[in-house]
User: Fold this.
Amino acid sequence: MRTVAQANCPICASPGSLLYSNLTDGLYGAQGSWQMRQCHRPECGALWLDPAPHPDDLAEVYKDYYTHNLVSDEPLGFRASVKDAFAARTLGYEGVQTRGARLASLLYVFSPRRSEWALYKRFYLPWVKDGRLLEIGCGSGAQLAGMARLGWQATGLDFDPRAVEAARQRGLKVEIGDVRQRAYPDASFEAIVMTHVIEHVFDPVGLLTECRRLLTPRGTLVLVTPNTASLGHRRYRDSWRGLEPPRHLVVFSPQALRLACQRAGIEVSEVLYSARDAANLFLSSERLRAAGGVGRIELPEANRNPPWRLRMLEHIERLGCALGKPWGEEQVLIGHPG
Ligand SMILES: [Zn+2]
Assistant:
């Protein structure tokens, strides 16, 4: 696979020092041995891949990733309406849920984990009447379909033709390719969301700048991305699942994500930390560590029952987040055009 050198930080252009070397893709088996640098500036601290895969060879990097990531429909039924009712209350949706669902959703107060999942599924996005929503990197559109059901005018974008086809079969308006090539008019959307996308792109600040242009003046941007300040990264270091070489080109510290937004003219209104899927991510990290950089691990997404000690660790991470620590495996940034 061809590579391109990336000597300086993709967010602030400062030099960095080598943090990890001999990284391999234990998840989807892309070839190569990779290394990550860390930015020197304390107000940034991003990690990035140097060298990175050549942009023309990305198909090689994503070959097996795509086939594993066709997510099936969120099942409709009582559970989904309870989730909708929770979102309606928390995010201001004009719900059409039954009284039973509304009552059951009150129980979410006893399950911070369910609350995190429910907010994630709704992109943490407050309701906007007749709002136009763009999801960049929508995959097969499972989450976007949920938002369309709640009343958003939903548009999706993705690179993977198979995922786009699957999303279209759900009846969604989804297009293939890069948002910058689509050249949407200014102020086309009330909301733009990207979950687990910004860490995959070569020019995060450029992408965020385009998002700013596409948002209405009071529009909302939601970013969800791995967090280098997480407990998982502190514990597993170069085996941490969130590094995902060579697909994650930049992995953000909380400071780096803020800085990228500031440089793109996005005003940050809120940053949250989430332990939503932490136990499974810990399990992947343990398997990556045990494999020692050789071969591919079994992905725990298929095994929804991580060991109790990892579930305990997830609870500790969630507790830390509730106490204001930046421990979550995911960081969630909510911003608006500045
Ligand atoms: Zn930097």
